Amino acid sequence: MGKFFERLFQKRGSRVSTINDWLQIQIGGPQDIKKKRPKGQNRIKSTKYTLITFLPQNLLEQFRRIANFYFLVMTIISLLIDSPVSPMTSLLPLVFVIAVTAAKQGYEDILRYRTDNVVNSSPVTVIRDGKEAIIKSQDVIPGELIVVERDCDVPCDLVLLRSTDPHGKCFITTANLDGESNLKTLMVPRDLPTVDLPEMHKLGIIECESPTTDLYSFNGKIELKGGEGRVLPLSTENVLLRGSRVKNTECVIGCAVYTGMISKLQLNSRLTRNKNASSETYINRFLIVILVALIAIVTLLYFLKRYNELFVIPKLTYLGDATDSYSVKQFLQDYLSFLILFNYLIPISLYVTIELQRVIGSWFMEWDLELYENETDQPCVVNTSNLNEELGQINILFSDKTGTLTKNEMNFQQCSINGNKFLFKKTRLEDEETKALLDINKFSVSLFHRYSLSGVPKSVCRLSLQANQRVFFQALSICHTVQVASGSLEQADAGTAKREPVTAIKSGPPEMYSISDITEESHNASQQSELNVGHTIDNSVSAHPNGVNSTIISSDVNPLLVSDDGYGVERRKRPVVIKRSPNFARSNRMNNGAASDLNINQTDPNTVTNGVEPTTNFRPISLQFRRSTSEKDLQQSWEAPSGQAPGHRRAHSYGAPNAYLTNPVTASTPPAGVLFRSPSTTSRESYAAPTFTRQPTILVRAESQRRKNEIRDFIFTLDYQASSPDEKALVEACANLGMVYTGDDDETLRVRIVPPHMDYKRPFAKPREETFQRLHVLEFTSDRKRMSVIVRDTDGKKWIYTKGAESYVFPLCANSSAELVTKTDAHISDFARLGLRTLAIARRLISEEEYQDFLVELAQANSSLENRKQLSEECYAKIESNLDLLGATAVEDALQDDVADTLVSLQAAGIKIWVLTGDKVETALNIALSCGHIPPDAKKYFIMECKNREEMLLHLNALDREIIFGIGQECALLIDGKSLGVALAEASSEFRDVAVKCTAVLCCRLSPLQKSEVVSLIKSSNENYNTASIGDGANDVSMIQEAHVGIGIMGREGRQAARCADFAFAKFCMLKRLLLVHGHYHSVRLSLLVLYFFYKNIVFMGIMFLFQFHTLFSSSSVYDSLFLTLYNVIYTSLPILFIAISEKPYTEEKLMRTPQLYKKNTDNKQLHWPYFLMWVLFAIYHSVIIFYFAFCFFYYNNVLLNYGQTVAFSCFGTLLMWTVVVVVNLKLWLESMYLSFWYIFTIIISILGFVVTTVIYNVINLDYDTDIYWAYNNLLASLPVWLWIIVTCVACLVPDYTIRMLQRALNIKSFSIFPGKQRKLKMREKFESTYL
Length: 1332
Known about the structure:
The protein is built from 40 helices and 35 strands. With 1332 residues, it is of the alpha+beta class. Helix 21 (848-863) runs antiparallel to helix 22 (868-879). Pfam families: Cation_ATPase (PF13246), E1-E2_ATPase (PF00122), PhoLip_ATPase_C (PF16212), PhoLip_ATPase_N (PF16209).
């Protein structure tokens, strides 16, 4: 029957129809107007229950628990027999527990239902009868034409039919689907005819395979209607999956193929197994022990009762004649009566209290400000509160690397060009050997075209090509699939209309500058900054390397980001500069007459620009240089003295705000508050230029800084969208160096040459924009490990640029690059040792004949319906050959904040850390060393390229000997994916047993499946390791779900890992607090909660057991039914719940400073048998003291009432209950470490709760179970009773208090006399190591 209900109510999940192997879908949906369109076919359902199935399914789940099922049976028995107590004593607590649990689970399901309704009711635009209509998402049917706009989610799986992109492309992100935040490109099926909207439903029929869970495969075709009857193949590049989001494409139209629960997203949202905390194993063991004890007690009392009936009662003539017959019915009555009487040994409210404690504890974690990320407004998220205490039991932590230990923020760091290493310095390159700084102005000039035109051999051309840094970065700026966010370039250009006139004085932060802004700015600045060379001359001296006088030709025009046609400002030459001594004194009081002594006849007439006559104003002879970090900034402007026109002033000072004076320096006193710096030779501010350098150096430096800021702001405005963070980092690095990729227009790539640094030693080259026609993109795949683009330059030449993993690019290089390959490979190894991610870059010229052959072969491959992918890759490989190697790049994935401190602390806490990554060994090793995963002095053992079981066993045996004989020496294991595959398949147990002995394990080049297999392998160990997995991407989901505790980081790779995890937060460093603080607290709290529940019930029922020996084992109850009902619900529930959510044996600061304290609770030490037995002994002692103190109290003098009467039997049971409530609550107070006024208040409230309920109950003459009418009031009025309670409580708790104080005073470790499992294991390991 149970299996029948289980099959009836179990959740089906997402199932796939298997009626037909292939689905046929009419584009536009069914066209039969008479038929009503079905509804709800795209409905998503994640709820667990329905209104009909909630009650039976929830009850079935709850009665699987031992305690609930036990009390159900006891309630039924109490209704069937003549129960010694009221059946309500079992029924009411059971109903309460079941109702609370059902309400909690029902509420959670209602929240899921509301979430589903939000998705199902979201509006979707469809095309019906040639017109747009808006319907609910749940009403979409297969074949429906769906319109999806930019930045909107796809409502179901669609076949792309139309896109606003002129080339039929659609760009999407799939962060909600697979966790990847990079941009992906989809295409409208090739050769699909373009028809008007009203005719789209006549396109034809889509035939596709039945839906599967594979996100990266789709096989189908479109059978076009009409006379041609053509068939167009469909693949994954034509399908938008539910959960993806349209980006950088204004609008697309698709045909729905898979809807609702059969979409690929829902098929991958399968139900995972329920995770249970390891503490539940100990709870079940304790329950079994108590259940066995219960059966033993009931059996013992039954036989004692039969003994008394046979041999004792017949001798007691006043009891009457004994019965001669004994039936089975009488046996059941006697035996089950005892069973009903002692059923409270099993704590029914234990489970519901644990549930409440876990839920409230999860709120505390979500409210913890230390686990809150302010930048993203992201708190900690607890998806599975059942595992709170499991956070304090972790033995082995499995971690991803990229995005988890690192930020997944790529920064270009180094590169290798023509065998020379360069360091990236934001806007310059630094040669590693010479330390020379190179900017784009100093990059070697390309000689390829010159050589190729003059008939120089190809080998010479190749050598000149390799030596060209410009070509290298040109390759990086065009060999990619980066998209510029639509409208961002226009947004930057639109800034001109909103700008104020350049003559106006601006304050506040600089604006975002556009290309047109910069052009206008530069033009106006050049007009304002003319020198009146007829009156004065710039006395600044050029820093010529040879120290000779030279005429400097420069320009104030800012050519930054200015296209050729926008360059309309003439360059003007500076006058001949007379060199002076470096010790030439600068004077702020030099007057106009001083300038007349200088030779001014060498003025260049080109100084006049655009017909603007020179003014009589002049620049100051010596511009005062002021650092941006000056103690007091110069004012931006002040009023010039009367009769003087304003001096040189730029509309904006980008690099150093207020760096220029706004009027000539005269003998007059400057305004108050303006600080002038003396440009002496000892000034600290002479670091930027030689002391004798004046205006040209200052202007160049400020102009360069201005341009760098403009480039940075312009890059930010462009908003690059890349398929990988590495690709985006490379494009941004090129832009910072001066090659700004500004997007593609009709496959025309535009790269603006933007020198970020002015160089007044040579004339400025005219700024320009390079364009390349992108002909083909050979996409990156996990098999190819590279991507290529084929472009045509402005000269009509065709080039192929390739970048990818060096192991895949180097074999494609020409033989003439062999020497360069060797040098570059050595540099790549150096980069990898620094923990950098590397790519190799190559290119070559393609002849027209070769290109035409490539087109033919590619067309044949794309038209093939079988082995299309294989044929395409063969075609790609043919043209990606004989490449000229340009160099390699090195990108850094920055470490997470405080990752080293977190890992070191977790290792000190006894947690072994395994890093499972897909990176190469060298990169992963250096990341592991830098972040503290592998200790610097640890022995490193490598297992690489292992091919069979024999080789693996040799490695493992050698490693085992290293660990055994290197006693105390830390050892780290590094293994690659190929060797790990052999270990998992052929030597799993041997690998597991040796690997767990290592301090750290680093597994490289792993697939997501291998990650989960490693976790599963460790879980299968006999040592019962508690595992945790942490990751941030979709490739970590299987690992997270496999571990005992799954932890997700809400990182840049999407939120799927966070959604599938049990706990999630924003930063890896928060893991330290989650485990060391919250894990420690929850473990201590749950242990106290469980042990206390068994303790208080044993005290409660122990008195009942002793009472039977004084009633001829009559199965009579010493307690009233009210006490049995309320004992676990009111009298003792509140204090333990409060302390179970607030107990703190150590402060949070101490736990963070002392990770070793984490070891005190691992392996559920406080739930081991010694602790349980000690609580049981205390419970037995307390029950004996309470019962016999009361027994003696009543036996020797039962005249206890104030009016001199003897007490009734009801007073005896009431006094026992009163004492039990006081003692068990004070015992909890004694065991608690963190005392607060609220906690003490809950104890007082519980005791007062007993007093109040009993007073109310005993003044009502119900005569329901036992007659305690006015009994408790009489006890309250008796002074001896109060004295007796005080004495009894002291007698019970003095031993507890004494033992506790001795442990603290003498620092005695509890239960060290018990061997225990862990001690036995340690003794065994010590013996084996000594013996070996």
